[in-house]
Amino acid sequence: MINPINNYNIIPNIGKYVNFSEVYSGEKGELDLSYWVLDYNLEKAKEHIVPEVHRMLKTFEHWFGPYPFYEDSYKLVDAPYPGMEHQSSIAYGNKYLNGFWGRDLSGTGWGKNWDYMIVHESGHEWFGNNITTVDIADMWVHEGFTTYSETLFTEDYYGMEAGNEYTKGIRTGITNSFPVIGFYGVNDEGKSSDKYAKGSNMIHTIRHSIDDDEMFRNILRDMNKTFYHQVVTTQQIENFINKNSGFDFSVVFDQYLRNIEIPHFEFYFSANKNTVHYRYTNCIPGFDLPLVLKNSDVKLKIFPTNEWSSKEINSNEAALFSPESIENMYYIYVKENLTAHVN
Predict the structure, then answer these.
(1) pTM, full prediction
(2) Is the Cβ–Cβ distance between 234 and 195 less than 8 Å?
(3) What would the mean pLDDT of 316-331 be, rounded to a whole number?
(4) If you ran DSSP here, which 8-state letter would residue 304 be given?
């Protein structure tokens, strides 16, 4: 190994291992892939792990840029626990099953189409091992982006709606009991596991608000290039996204990372349904997430704030105000307010 490494990413592996290797033609050239499995798992590993690693690398190099440790190869090692993102040597203990030990953490069915440990722990090579936070209070950078890698993998192989449904499904694991970011300078990564699913859902929300997947992809790739093998702070990541997206999401980051309330989006139509009124409630002052509502035929962009706003619409645009569709794209609660009036 020639690249710098965090001490928590170093682990000894002792067992009756057998090894098989191959070469993957990746974005940066030839990448050595080496698998160390217990002898009785050899055939299962060749059948189950190899194609999944190839699928993972294809998706993640597309979205995040080249695998960050070509010089050190990619290794996967059998382990007696679920898994861990040891740099360039993923610990694997998922019992050669799809999902997380056969379970779909999203409850949607999509998570049983791929091996959670191969996808999630490998995602950490980009977020956690390549881009590493100075303080573990900012651990959402590792876990939020890596959890979102699951969405991108799902979407790449099963479609955009599958990715939306998967992301919404993992919200069942969010507690909203404490802010995502912990206390700085005291070795505190936060008091809940919301850094995973809530971090991912925030990224999903920002992505749909940007409404330009090529721009979003370039942000992820440029982030891995700009902060290549570096330590960062949350503020650096926020500033990077704000600058490269062309919109200041600072209040959005504050809402999801530093507070526990989830915004409510309220709307109602005029009597003839040619005007829609909308606002955000249950959010911090100044919350201003732009919403892009769309289907295969129609797109509408609105800019809700804490105050009632209105926009003239046609019948096709009115149909976009489906709470289920909006909540699939954004981590907000949507409610048609039939009793509201503009002051």
Answers:
(1) 0.96
(2) no
(3) 97
(4) -
